[in-house]
Amino acid sequence: MKFTAQQVATLVGGRIEGNEHATVQNISKIEEGKIGDLCFIANAKYEDYLYQTEASVVLVNESLQLKEVVKPTLIRVKDAYASFALILQTYQEITSPKPKTGIEQPSFLDPSATVGENVYLGAFSYVGAQSTIGNGTRIHPNCTIGDQVKIGERCIIYPGVTIYNGCVLGNNVIIHSGTVIGSDGFGFALENGSFKKIPQLGNVVIEDHVEIGSNCSIDRATIGSTRIGSGVKLDNLIQIAHNVEIGSNTVIAAQAGISGSTKIGAYCMIGGQAGVVGHIRIADQTKINAQSGVSKEIKVTGKSITGSPAFDYKASLKSQAVYKNLPDLQQEIIQLKKELEVLKNK
């Protein structure tokens, strides 16, 4: 399917520099661009490819200042990354096959379960007693939906997902393969020399427009709910412990772990392999660098932290500058001690 530069510009609200009739039929990375390809540049590190590429059309930011003449037609937009995402979404809607509907066999749907219109339930899936599935939701093969689970409208549950009893999903939730929602929280009490299991009686509540990557574990609350706020995006391989609350539109990268009863604010950004201890609060708009270990409450909105134990990001940069000079500083101290001994012995 071919599109002209003018059609693409109309879709993203961009301004054309070059041939508005240039056509594209493929989407590719800028470093691999060929004739007929549409590419984008949002990161300055890739700008040099713009002057080498054979791509026909390239999306760029309005602010980009060209260093030399370019071959492709440019479409200037406010945010090239966001515009490219819109193009991908539109392309997917045009080219993807029509979503499946209906209940494939073999699968099990409890007679007391309620299923909305245009729902897809893939083969070898299980839906328990008194569970509800909203209109337009797609549950792919080999999923397990427990009893009294509520799943909203237009959700996508990919193969191999398990949702335990009593959990609640809002509308437009996406959960990728291998993720487990509502497994028991890590609750044990030492009694008479052995650990006794504390019953985990709560559930998990996932609000609207949440996307959860593959192989994540979100534990049910001991009492009450583990809660994932609206618009939250979780990467793969993330552990969310019991009674955690994650504020709206927070994003968390792969292999991060949030310990029990911690409250994460809205619009936070948590890097990969970061860890947060339990029973603390993280303020809104906090940025936690990759591999950081957060052990104390963060009260100030918009703070950036790094390290283990984590502390202010700007202060850490100063510390790094000192750290790399430690060998030279050590030699200076040794030399000063020698000179001091000489002065003492005079």
Provide tags for this entry.
346 residues, alpha/beta, Udp-n-acetylmuramoylalanyl-d-glutamate--2,6- Diaminopimelate Ligase, Chain: A, domain 1, UDP N-Acetylglucosamine Acyltransferase, domain 1, 3 domains, twelve-stranded mixed β-sheet, ten-stranded parallel β-sheet, 5 helices, 40 strands, flat
Word description of this protein:
This protein has 3 domains: 3-95, MurE/MurF, N-terminal domain (Udp-n-acetylmuramoylalanyl-d-glutamate--2,6- Diaminopimelate Ligase, Chain: A, domain 1), CATH 3.40.1390.10; 102-316, UDP N-Acetylglucosamine Acyltransferase, domain 1; 320-346. With 346 residues, the chain is of the alpha/beta class. The strands form 6 sheets. A 12-stranded mixed beta sheet has the order 8-11-14-17-20-25-28-31-34-37-39-40. It is flat. The chain is built from 5 helices and 40 strands. Helices cover 17% and strands 29% of the residues. Strand 22 and strand 23 (194-197) form a beta hairpin. The protein starts with a strand and ends with a helix.
What's the arrangement of secondary structure elements?
Blueprint: E1 3-4, H1 5-12, E2 15-17, E3 23-24, E4 26-27, E5 37-41, H2 47-50, E6 57-61, E7 73-77, H3 80-95, E8 102-103, E9 108-109, E10 114-115, E11 120-121, E12 126-127, E13 132-133, E14 138-139, E15 144-145, E16 150-151, E17 156-157, E18 162-163, E19 168-169, E20 174-175, E21 180-183, E22 188-191, E23 194-197, E24 203-206, E25 211-212, E26 217-219, E27 225-228, E28 233-234, E29 239-240, E30 245-246, E31 251-252, E32 257-258, E33 263-264, E34 269-270, E35 275-276, E36 281-282, E37 287-288, E38 293-294, E39 304-306, E40 311-312, H4 313-323, H5 326-344
Parallel strand pairs: 4-5, 5-6, 6-7, 8-11, 9-12, 10-13, 11-14, 12-15, 13-16, 14-17, 15-18, 16-19, 17-20, 18-21, 19-24, 20-25, 21-26, 24-27, 25-28, 26-29, 27-30, 28-31, 29-32, 30-33, 31-34, 32-35, 33-36, 34-37, 35-38, 37-39
Antiparallel strand pairs: 1-3, 2-7, 22-23, 39-40
